[in-house]
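assembly run, all chains below
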Amino acid sequence: MSENIKSDARGAEQIIEWGESRKIETCFDRADRLKPCPIGSVGACCKVCHMGPCRLVGKDAEEEARGVCGATLPTVAARNMLRMIAAGTAAHSDHARGMAFALLAVAKGEAKDYKITDVRKLYRVAGYLGIEFEGREVNAVAKEVAEKLIEDFGRQKGEGNFITRAPKKTQERWRKWGIVPRGVDREVCEAMHRTNIGVDHDPDHLLTQGLRTALADGWLGSMISTDVTDILFGTPKPIKAEASFGIFKEDEVNLIVHGHEPLLAETLVDVVAEPEMVEYAKSKGAKGINLGGMCCTANEVLMRHGIPTAGGFTNQELGIMTGLIDAMTVDVQCIMPAITEISKKFHTKVITTSEKAKIQGAMHVEFDEHKAKEIAREIVKIAVDNFPNRTATGSHITDKAPLIAGFSHEYIEYMQGGTWRGSFRPLNDAIIAGRVRGVVGLAGCDNPRVPSTGLHHFLAKELIKNDVLIVSTGCGSAACGSAGYLTPEMALENAGPGLREVCEAIGIPPILHLGACVDNSRILTIASAMAAEGGLSDEIGGMPAVGIAPEWMSEKAIAIGCYFAASGIPVIFGGESPVEASKEVTRLMTEVWFERFMGALHFEPDPEKMLAMALQYIDTAREKLKLRKYEPGKFGAERVLMDMAARREIEKAAKPHMGIY
Amino acid sequence: MSKLIASAAIRASHTLVTRAEEMLEKAIAAHGEGHAFEFPDTAFYLPMIYAMTGFAVKTIGDMKTALGFAKELLHNEPEDALWKPYLGEALDSGMATLFAEEIILALRYIGGQEPVKDPETGYEYNGFITDTIQRNLGIQLVDGTMPGFAAIIGAAPDDDTAVTIVRELQEKNILTFLSGNVDGNSVTKQLLRKGVALGWDTRIVPLGPDTEHTLYALDWAIRASLIFGGKKAGDFKEHLKYQKDRVFAFAMVLGPLNDIIWSTGAGAINMGFPAVADTDIPVIHPTGVCTYEEVDKEFDHAKIVQKAIEVRGLKIVVEKPPIPVAYGPAFEGERIRKEDMFIEFGGQRTPAFEWVRTKELEEIEDNKVIIVGENWQERFEQGGKMPLGMVIDVAGRKMQKDFESVIERKIHHNLNEAQGLWHMGQRDINWVRISNQAKKDGLTLEHIGIIQATMTHSRFKSIVDKVQVTLYMDEKDVLALHEEAKKAYKERDERLGSMTDESVDTFYSCLLCQSFAPSHTCVITPERLGLCGAYNWLDGKAAYEIDPTGGNQPIRKGEAIDSVKGRWTGVDEYIKSATGGALDTMNAYTIMDNPMTSCGCFECIIAIVPEANGVMIVQRGHTGMTPAGMKFSTLAGSVGGGMQTPGFMGIGRNFITSKKFLYADGGLKRIVWMTKNLKESLKEKFNQRAAEEGVPDLLDKIADESNAEDSEKLLEFLSSVGHPALEMDPMF
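ok done. output:
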C-alpha cells in the first residue's frame, strides 16, 4: 500500500485521477485540504453550552485545563464520547424502528407489497420472545413479534428482549456493572441529558452510560433490524455477486441504491424485473435495467439477491463520476451531501427517499412502505427517463470482482454440518486445534483520510495469512469484495495452512460477508453460539476474537465498537483517538473496560501495530483458555481414545448443544 | 480436495433419489400405495427415516412421503470456480442418499430381491439386521467385548490381504460388516474363497454385494440410540450426538471409490462415522462433525485397521494369552465339526469336569500348568478323545469362596475365544474340542492350561493373585476328583439357594449399559439377576472387588420402606443419584408401581394383560404375535431406554423362577401366557416353584403361542383350564 495513493482500490484510484485531471473535487481532495481540527479531533473541545466552545488544551491539560464551567478534560472527552455513542445508537436503532414498524404493517395487512418471507426465522424470533407460534396464523405471530420488538424502543424499565440471548456470564457482568439497557430511546435520551451542561461529570460514570447505550444499539436496535429484515426478506444464504465500478452497464439503465435501509431496495429488486418496466427501458433505448447498490443498502440486497455493489462509502462520488449512473436513490446514513453537487456535472439524478433525510439539490420521492411498489415504479421511471440524457462523459471503469456473500449466522451454523449436524463445534474445534488461530470481525467504514480501503486490504490479507478467520460487514465487506477477497479461491491462495484446511473442508472464503453494518449484531449471535457450544470461553469475553474498524469515520462505528467492548470483545479502531487528549478516558476505555467486561476500545493508526495488537489479544486469549499454542502449520486435536469406562462418563461431562437454529 | 467429495456425494444423491422414485412408481403400480411393509423383525419401520424425521413408514405410499424428505435435501453440485460452500450441502445430500437407499432396499424386499443370494456361490447375505440381533448383542456392546464396528466396503487387492484385515479386526473384537464390490469382487467373496467362517458368531457379517447395502449397518447403528439410548424418533440432534459419542463405528473403503460410496459415506459422517480408504483420495481433516478426521487414507494394509481405530477415537485393550492361534470373542462362535476335529474331551464321550477351587497363597505356584497322566503326550498326539479333569486353583488376598462359581463360568469363554478351540457346557457336563488346524498351528494340551491361567488373571486381576492349573488326563484321576468337585458344586448350590434379598445388606448396581443407555441403572439383588441375564449378584460383587470404580457398585440396602414391593431407603437414594434425579424410587418386586427400568438388552419382557388379570412373558428372539397385541420388537420399544413404564418390564429369564418374581403382584400365578421356549427351558425349576405356590400344574394352565396369540383366545384358554389369575385380586 503506497502512501501516495488516495484509494487502494484500483478502479477508485483511476476515477480519482481522472477527476483530478478535470478538476472535479471529491472527498479525497477535501480531506487533503481540510485538516481535522486538532482540538476537536482528540476530544478536547467542549461545545455543549454557549459559554464556550471551550478548548481544554495546554501543558498538563489532563489535570489543569478547565472549561468555563470548570469541566475537566476527562469530563469533556468522556462527554464527547458518550454523545458519539448516542448518535450512533440512535441511527441504527431508528433504522431498526422502521423495520419493526414495517413488520407490524405487513402483519396487519397494511403493506401489501411485502410478506413474511422467512416464517422459520419468524418462529425462531418468536421463540426468543416467548411468543407461542405453533398452530397460529403467521401474521398473528408476526404482529405479536413486531409489537414486542417495538417495546424495546420505548421501554422505560426492565431489560431489552434479546439480552437473554447473550451467554449467562456475559449477562451477569452487565448486571453487575449496571449496563443492561432498558429501552433504546431511554438510553439515548439519558445520554443526551447527562451530557447536557451541568449534569454528569464523572468520566467513568459517563462512559458506563455509554456502554449501556451501546448495548442498546447492539442487542436491541441492530439485532432487531437484522432479525426483522431476515423475517421480511429472507435469511441470507450463500450467493454469488460482483463488486466495484465494473458492475455498471453501458447499455442498461443503471439504478443505484445507496444508504442503509432495505425496504425500498427490496421492492426495486422486484420492480426492475417487471416486464412493463423492462419494456419501458427498452423504449428509451436501454437493453434493460441494471440495479446496483452502494454502501449498506447494497449489502442488504447483495446478501439476499446477489445485487452487485459499486462499493462503500468513499465510492459514492466516484460512482457518479463514471457517468453511468442514471439515478441514485439514497435513504439514510453515510450519504455525502456532495453527491448532489457532483451529480450536476453528470446526468445522474440523486433521489432522496426518506422522510428523515433531504438534500438540497436532490429530487425527493418519499418512500412509504404502504405503497412500496407504486413508489418504486416511479423511481425506476425517473431512472429510465434519464437514460437518454447519458453522455459519453465519465470515467468508465470495467474492473469488477466476483464474490460469495450471504453468511447469515444461521447459514454459518448450517455450513458446519448441514441440516442434521449444524453447530459451531467444527469452528470451536478448529480454534482449539490451532487450525484457526482466532476470529476477527473486520468491519467499519472506508475513509478518505487514509488510502481508502487500503487498511482493510492490508489487515485482511495479513490476518488470513496468520490463520485468522475474518467475518466482515458493511463497507469492510465492500472493500474486501471489490478487491476480490471474498472468494473461496482466496483461501486456497492466501490463507495460512490451518485456515485453508478449514475453508477447503467447508468450501468457504476466508472472509465471510455477514451483511450490512447493522448486521454486526450477527457477530454477537455467533460469539454467543460459540460460547454455548463449549470448549472455548463460556462467555463472549475471553474468546480469541477481536473487532477491527481500521478506517472508521461514523459515530455508528463508535457505537458498534462500544457494544463489542461491553460484550467482551476487544476492539481496535484505526486513526487517531477521538479521546486521545485524555489519558484517564483512554485508560477507562482500555484497561478498566477490559477488567470489567473483557473487552476494550483502542485507537491505533498504524496498521502494522493494529495487526500485532489483534494477534496479541488472540494469542493471550488462547493462552488463558489453555489452548494449544498457535504455530503455523502445526495443528491437530489431542486424541482421547475411549474405552468403555470413559464412554460411561460421557453423560457427566457432556454439555447440551445450544444451537441457534 | 473436499470439493470433489462434496460433488460426488451430491451427484449420487440425485441418482439414488431418482432411482428410488422410479422403483417406487413401479411398486405403486404393482402393489398399490396401501401395500404394507416392514423390514424383518423390527419395531422401527424404516429406522433411519424414522429416527431422523419421526415419520413411520408403514406402506409403500408412506415411502413416497419419505422420499419427499430426501428431495428437500438435494443440492446443486459446487461449481469449478467461485463455488459456494458445500460441506453442509454434501452432508444433507448424504442423508438424502441414506433415505433413498433405505427406500430402495425396502422396495427390493417387497420384490423378493433381499437378502441377496449370490448367483455364483449361492451364498446368502444377511440383509436387514433384526431388532433381535441388536438386542442379543446388547451386553457385548457395553462390557467392552465388542468395542467397535467396521463397515468394509469394496474388495482388498487380493484374498490374503482381505483375510489379514478381517483377522485383525476380529482380534480387536470389532464387529465387521461387509458390503460393496470392486468389479464384482468383494471382501465377502475373498473371505469365502479363503474358507473364512462368516456370520454373527464370527463377527463378520456380509450385508449385501452393493454399496447401498451398507445402509443396513447404519440402520443397525441408528437403532442403538432408539433402543438403548431412549432417544425419541424425530429428535435427530440427539440421535446423531449419541451416534457420534457412543457408537464407535467407522468405514473402511478398499479399492476405488465411486459417487455412491462417497454419498453413503457423507450420510455416515452425519452420524460421526469417519471413513478411511486404501487409495489416494482427498482427505478431510478438520474435526467437529466427526470427533476426529472425517476422511483419511492409509495405503499400507498392515496399518489400515489401526489407522481407522485411531481416527474413530477408539481404545481397544486386547488380552491375548501366549498361544499359537488367534484369540478373541470373535472366535467364540466358531464351531468345530467332527471332520475338522483333532481331539475331544467330555461331552458324554469321556469323563470330564472343570472346577475352580480356592487355595491359600502358599499352597500353589503362580501360572504353573501341571499335566497329570501316563503317556499323556503320546495319547494326545494320537488324537480322538481323552478324559479331562480341569482343576483351576486360585489364591488371592481378596479371593472369596463365593467367587469360585463366577471364575468357573468364565472357563467357557476362556477356551472358546481361542481359534480352533471349542467349549460347551459347564461343571461335569462340559465338552471340549481341538481342531485339526489348531493342532497343526501348534496348539497343545499345555496351552489349555496357559489360557486358563492368563485369562483368569486378566479377568479377575484384583481378586486373583495366583493361578495354578492342573489337567488330569487319566480316567481314574478324573473320576476320583470328580467326586470332590461334585461335593463343591453341591455346597455352592445350597449356599446360593439360601441367599435371599433379606440375608444380605448390600445389593449391586450394574451401570455397564450406561455407555449405551445412559439413563438406565440395574439393581441386582440375590433374588433378582440383571435383566440381560448375564450378571447375578455374585458377579456384581466380584466385579466390584475387581474394579471398585467400575460398572458395578455396592448399594447399601438401608431400611425397608415396603418389604412387599421391595423398596428400600438405600436403593432409593442410590437410584436418585445414579440417574441424575430422573428417577426417585424403584420397587424390585412389582411391575405396577415404579418398576425397574430397562436398558434395551433384556432377555424377556413381561407385559400386563389387563383382560386376563395377569401378565405375559415373551423372550427376545420370539418373532410371533403376543396377546398384548404387539410383537417382542414393538413391546421392546416401550420398555427400553431407561424409562419406568408401569405394566411393562424387561427381565432376565431366570428371574421368573425367583421367589421374588412379581412378589407384590401375586407372583408366579400371575403368568397367564409365556412362550413355549420359556416353558421348556424353565420347566424343572418352574414346576418346583409352582408346587411351592400350591399350583403344581401351573405350567399347563399357562397359555402359549400354540393356543393363544390374541387376548380373546387367551381368555378362552384360561377359563377352560381355570387359571388361578382369573380369581386373584385385580392388578390395578
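The first helix of chain A runs from residue 10 to 21.

The longest strand of chain A covers residues 253-259.

not gonna interpret more than that til we talk
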